[in-house]
Specification:
Elements: E1 4-12, E2 16-19, H1 20-37, H2 39-44, H3 55-62, E3 66-69, H4 95-111, E4 120-124, H5 135-143, E5 148-152, H6 158-172, E6 177-185, E7 203-212, E8 221-230, E9 236-237, E10 260-261, H7 263-285, E11 292-297, H8 302-313, H9 326-329, H10 336-343, E12 353-360, E13 364-372
Parallel strand pairs: 4-5, 4-6, 11-12
Antiparallel strand pairs: 1-7, 1-8, 2-3, 6-7, 8-13, 9-10, 12-13
Helix pairs in contact: 4-5, 7-8
């Protein structure tokens, strides 16, 4: 048996930024346009008018102040309201691979290893641009990695589930070095025309290198243990897929073919599940609440994170103990906790403990308990 360790992380951040003010301006123009088109039906009481959004509403509901996206023009066009991503030929790398390569190269540089030393690539993301061939295999080829590769989808928990899979394979000896990459183009599955959720998501890609601790070239985080759990729920759902095709925003437009959630039920059901999951995981490993230096949580909603942080630590988190990157990146699905981990781990001293946790549709929750060496 070998000890798995995290030796490098990388984050790809798109160039385009959409602020709340920009988003609200576009959404309200769209709302006015739709309401004008349906003025008679609205007056007759047959159709509900589309309500305006506001920056104050967005910040209060989520804590989000801006988001990075792969395409800004389409999202902010009141007549389009979705990213306009160029369709690529089968002979060129996909957009997810392009994002992934940037994050992977940064993670490999931090770990101090070459791409051809990697013998496992897992592309773990909430949405994949095609059914097959696996995006992970394309990333493997473009990166120059060896071994094998596969895709994984556990929605917002994809990164932590991927880390568990990679850590287990390293522990067993079936692989020596792995990279788990999370290219998330959340803007492409968000319904930008729905006031209740039009502000939630952003785009990003993250990558995490795992290898045998004995092979680490510098400081590393030992993966003490991982724990995953799932419980079926329809409260977060997206019905779009290769078996049910539709033309977005066209004649066959269906609201359920984009991101949907029952926010109140999610809040009520997921928070106790995640808090209990983390505390049980820590108890099994003999790690007390007072032992944790930091918790890197999935970046879905500031109120949710504050609640979980308080439950896990047994008190109000001190500044830095439960860092948020939500205000800058918005919800980036599986990548959120890895962004937080990547940006806020350099101050760890040897022997200090931390915990990475993601949670989301499924329901799903994954936690990774780490110790600095």
């Amino acid at each position: 048996m070998f000890t798995p360790a995290i030796t490098g992380t990388g984050v790809f951040t798109p160039e385009n930024v959409i602020t709340n003010d920009e988003l609200v301006l576009a959404f309200n123009a769209y709302a006015d346009r739709v309401n004008e088109q349906n003025a008679a039906a609205i007056e007759a009481g047959d159709v509900e008018p589309v309500p305006h959004s506001s920056t104050e509403f967005i910040v209060k509901a989520s804590g989000i102040e801006q988001r990075f996206v792969m395409d800004k023009e389409g999202v902010l066009d009141p007549e389009v309201m979705h990213p306009k991503l160029r369709e690529r030929s089968d002979d060129e790398p996909g957009i997810m691979t392009e994002m992934a390569l940037d994050a992977c190269q940064k993670a490999l540089a931090q770990a101090g290893i070459a791409a051809d030393e990697i013998d496992l690539v897992i592309c773990a993301a909430s949405n994949l641009e095609r059914a097959y061939p696996a995006v992970a295999i394309e990333i493997q080829q473009e990166l120059g990695a060896g071994g094998f590769a596969f895709d994984m989808n556990v929605a917002c928990s994809s990164a932590t589930f991927g880390i568990q899979a990679a850590a287990d394979m390293i522990r067993s000896g079936s692989v020596k070095k792995a990279i788990v990459v999370n290219p998330e183009i959340c803007s492409a599955h968000l319904e930008w025309r729905d006031r209740d959720c039009h502000f939630i998501f952003g785009d990003v890609a993250t990558a995490t290198v795992l290898e045998r601790a004995e092979d680490a070239k510098g400081g590393y985080f030992e993966v003490l243990s991982t724990r995953c759990a799932t419980q079926f729920s329809n409260n977060i759902r997206n019905n779009n897929g290769f078996l049910r095709r539709t033309r977005p925003y066209g004649l066959e437009d269906r609201r359920d073919m984009q991101f949907m959630q029952n926010g109140r039920k999610v809040f009520k059901e997921v928070l106790p599940m995640v808090s209990a999951h983390i505390l049980s995981h820590m108890e099994e490993e003999g790690v007390a609440q007072s032992d944790l230096k930091r918790v890197w949580l999935h970046q879905a909603n500031k109120t949710m994170n504050d609640f979980i942080g308080k439950k896990v630590l047994g008190r109000e988190p001190e500044p830095g103990e439960q860092p948020n990157i939500l205000q800058d990146y918005a919800n980036t699905s599986s990548a959120g906790s890895i962004i937080a981990f990547s940006k806020y781990n350099e101050d760890f001293a040897a022997g200090e403990y931390g915990l990475i946790c993601s949670f989301g549709a499924g329901y799903s929750v994954g936690s990774v308990l780490v110790k600095r060496h």
